[in-house]
Amino acid sequence: MNRLERVLLPLFVAALIIAVWSVWASGGSGGATDFPTPLEVWRGYGHLLRPAHGEHGPLILKHIVSSVFRTSFGFLAAVGLGIPFGLYLGWSARAHASLDWLVQMLRPISPIAWIPIAIMIFRGDDLRSIFLIFVAAFLPIVISTSAAVHSVPSMYLRAASNFGLSDFQILQRVVFPASLPQIVLALRVAAGISWIVIVAAEMVAVQDGLGWLITDARYQGARTDLVVGTMIVIGLLGWGIDSLLRRLERHPRVSWGYPRNG
Amino acid sequence: MASARIEVRGVAKSFRQRGGRSLEVLRDIDFTIEAGEFVCLLGPSGCGKSTLLSIIGGFEKADKGTITVDGAPLSGPDPRRVFVFQEYGIFPWMSVSENVGFGLGALGAEERSRRVAHWIGAVGLGGFENALPAELSGGMRQRVALARSLAVEPEALYMDEPLGALDSLTRQQMRTEISALCRRSKPTVLFVTHDIDEALLLADRIIVMSVRPAHIIEIVPVAITHPRRFGEADYVAIKRHLYRLLGLRDEV
Fold first, then answer.
1. Across the interface, do A156 and B132 touch by the CB < 8 Å criterion?
2. Does A56 have pLDDT greater than 90?
3. Does the N-terminal peptide bond of residue B227 adopt cis geometry, omega within 30 degrees of 0?
4. Interatomic CA distance for residues B158 and B39, integer angstroms
């Protein structure tokens, strides 16, 4: 495949989707509940980019900032607590015996199910959403980190203890670096979940953000053009967040852990 | 560097198998390795040589018997006596220098980098200081493992089939280098192998072990001066003897 194809193929697919979508959406029986055409969505961005009443800057920007800020905050808190906790859980047989059952039981509960609790416990939109993102990202990070620690080859541990390292030094100099490639993969997964959950959380629990924008568009006279427009923005931002995290995989302290492609 | 005198007295070991039956692996193992001696443990695969080495290294406990190093009972793994693992025992996220310097954390930065440079040179890896293990061949990785262990200037080296994963040409070459390096810095060496020629080329004495439950069949001295050559009369004589001890025919 040459470089031209690499650029043209996705553009071609995008054009095809827009064409099929146009024909399909405009063939409908009309009326506000019907799916918007690409052109209507495009025009909808005119609305999303205008400032709201008595404010400066594009309307959607404020919501993007809210969503991104909350997701980053909750995600970083989950990373900061989840990695050390996962290391501990994977390293200490006692911690594993005491807590693994709890982690396994909490894991299958959808983060969405925590929404009522978030609303009851926390006042303020930001705290509620940050809490939900934390819940969504923390457990996957803990579980993957602890699994990564378990899969560190015992030969590395033997070598480390043979050279007289203390338990803490082994954790710091061998177990953590040996687990890092798997941890980074877990961070990408957790960030993806966080971005999915923030939209759901904002649709229900709070008064702004991209999720709220979708709900609001529906109540403001069924503006499906704005709904679809916001969905596209959510998708692009999620893609961007993932691309940023994917850069971590190229760091030499991480990339050694992935099989070479080509 | 100092070297250790290791005494193994009446060591026995069994493993509990699935279903509760016990599998006897080592029976009544008894020998002494003098300080600075190079001793090979030779025996069929799976006979318990590695278990014995693990016990002497302090990673596993014997059911019966004692191990003393320079007269003191063994209490566990000790940085003065280090294992050389097969090539995959080095850390894949660390460069060659970081791997070689791994056991030198207690030294000052200057002394550490001096030693790292010395041992990288000694195993012929000059120019590869910043390479990651994945960029090296199997033989080069084994050199890193060797340098990492020698850099701490141990009084004993325990090698568990360290050349097992290498192709036969690289293996020949690494044997020569291990022999030269160990003869220069004189740690006590206990070297596990199932390769008769390897034992004959390296060892001062060969401890010949039986199939499971492993006991010592005979301890064979190899009084041949270095460098040793395949095919010389005394070499062949000892080799015939080893074949007989292991119950092998010396013809194909």
1. no
2. no
3. yes
4. 10
Give the model confidence (pLDDT) of B110-158 as tens digits: 999 999 999 998 888 999 999 999 999 888 898 899 899 989 989 999 9
pLDDT at B190: 94
* Mutation target among B60, B91, B152, B159 for the A interface, most CBs of A within 10 A: B91
Which of B59, B51, B42, B56 has its CA nearest to residue B24? B51
The Cα B131–Cα A252 span in angstroms is: 11
Pick the closest to residue A117 from A127, A107, A108 (CA basis): A127
Cβ–Cβ contact A175 with B under 8 A: no
Helices marked H in chain A: 3-26, 38-49, 59-91, 93-106, 115-121, 125-150, 154-162, 167-170, 176-204, 210-219, 224-248, 252-255
Burial class (CB in 10 A: 0-12, 13-18, 19+), B247: exposed
> Is B97 a residue whose pLDDT tops 60?
yes
Distance from CA of A87 to the nearest CA of B (A): 18
B170 CB-contact burial (10 Å; exposed 0-12 / middle 13-18 / buried 19+): middle
Cβ pair B152:A163 closer than 8 A: yes
Residue A258 touches partner B, C-beta closer than 8 Å: no
- Put residue B157 in one of left, alpha, beta given phi > 0 → left and psi -120 to 50 → alpha: beta
Q: Is the pLDDT of residue B245 over 60?
A: yes
The interface pTM score, or ipTM, of the predicted complex is 0.84
Quote the pTM value. 0.85
Residue A34 φ/ψ, nearest 5 degrees: -70, 160
A237 touches chain B (CB under 8 A): no
A162, A168, A184, A254: best to mutate for the B interface, most B CBs within 10 A: A162
Q: What is the C-alpha separation between A28 and A43, in angstroms, rounded?
A: 19
Q: Which residue of A has its CA nearest to B78?
A: A162
B79 CA: distance to closest CA in chain A (Å): 5
